[in-house]
């Protein structure tokens, strides 16, 4: 045992001696050669480049990325970024359609988006879309009033709200208190709500216009401001609204009757920034303008009135000079393929296209796009929509509020 222990000690000393004779090398960190050259740029992305990159991302990505850092959150939620994103999306993104279905007897509005159809003589006469392939979104409400800059104005019972389909957020506004509220509290037949945008003040406003004949009230509320409806009286031209609103360059337009025994037809303009009303007189020969269903349209930068097509034809009146009361009228005849039905106009576009919905529902569900300049049509059919939503018993469109508008992604936050 003593011999083994002594041998072990000798062996250990020899090993320590050998290790001591070894040369010790000092590890010096070496730089790897950069593929960018001898003077590589630092691993840093300039702030302006980050902003430009974020501006080109879809809204779904922006919703996620605003949670990654405080810097990105402050950038994405800033008013300047949201306006730049909206302008970029409106000018560069491919055109899309936002289609909404509101059930007057229900509580939800169905929304989905489709590519804008190319209405020309060279394009195919129809295209088919499967209902199961659509990205659907439901929001509480019954009716869509209008759409402005990626936002839509929706109504539900006696309330009104603003919805951003891109972020899938709905903001409900305070209820208007009438001096003499209607007996039926489930619905509010009293007001039409129109969404507008102040180009100078960068504000969204909602105009509530009384559509009854026994009271005259116009009120305004500002998104992002106080949650209070303010009076916006129209003393010079008391009226009741009769058509959906058209938004053009900071001004809302809608058809109306002037209050009085004669009930003269007029077009009312509302300056969203100044909150002032003006009346556009309609020539005497068209004094019964609103006796039948009509809608307003931006036709080449001019206000125009379109009547709903009946028996294959319809008329359009264009306001050539409002002060001189100069109007022009054109009669359109639908192509033979679409001339045998009656239609509702559920959407108008600056391109000269209008979207028609047959009064009688068909399977598959069909929308007809008609170009006023080329007199050409294109059908967009949605397979399976009728069965999934309404069942086989649905025969007419009178129960439903269907609206089609131009759509582009918006990151606008709804806040008051």
Task: Describe this entry's structure for a reader.
By secondary structure, this protein is mainly beta. It has one domain: TolB, C-terminal domain (Neuraminidase), CATH 2.120.10. It is built from six helices and 26 strands. The chain has helices at residues 2-21, 47-55, 59-65, 70-76, 79-92, 385-389, and strands at residues 96-103, 108-115, 126-130, 137-140, 143-148, 151-156, 159-164, 169-172, 191-198, 203-210, 218-222, 230-231, 239-241, 246-248, 251-258, 265-271, 276-281, 294-299, 302-307, 313-321, 326-333, 343-348, 353-358, 365-371, 376-383, 400-407. The strands form six sheets. A five-stranded mixed β-sheet has the order 3-25-24-23-22, with no helix packed on it. It is globular and about 70 Å long. The termini are far apart. Mean pLDDT is 80; it is low at 1-12.
Could you give a quick summary of the protein structure above?
With 416 residues, this protein is mainly β.
Write the layout of secondary structure elements.
Elements: H1 2-21, H2 47-55, H3 59-65, H4 70-76, H5 79-92, E1 96-103, E2 108-115, E3 126-130, E4 137-140, E5 143-148, E6 151-156, E7 159-164, E8 169-172, E9 191-198, E10 203-210, E11 218-222, E12 230-231, E13 239-241, E14 246-248, E15 251-258, E16 265-271, E17 276-281, E18 294-299, E19 302-307, E20 313-321, E21 326-333, E22 343-348, E23 353-358, E24 365-371, E25 376-383, H6 385-389, E26 400-407
Parallel strand pairs: 3-25
Antiparallel strand pairs: 1-2, 1-26, 2-4, 5-6, 6-7, 7-8, 9-10, 10-11, 11-12, 13-15, 14-15, 15-16, 16-17, 18-19, 19-20, 20-21, 22-23, 23-24, 24-25
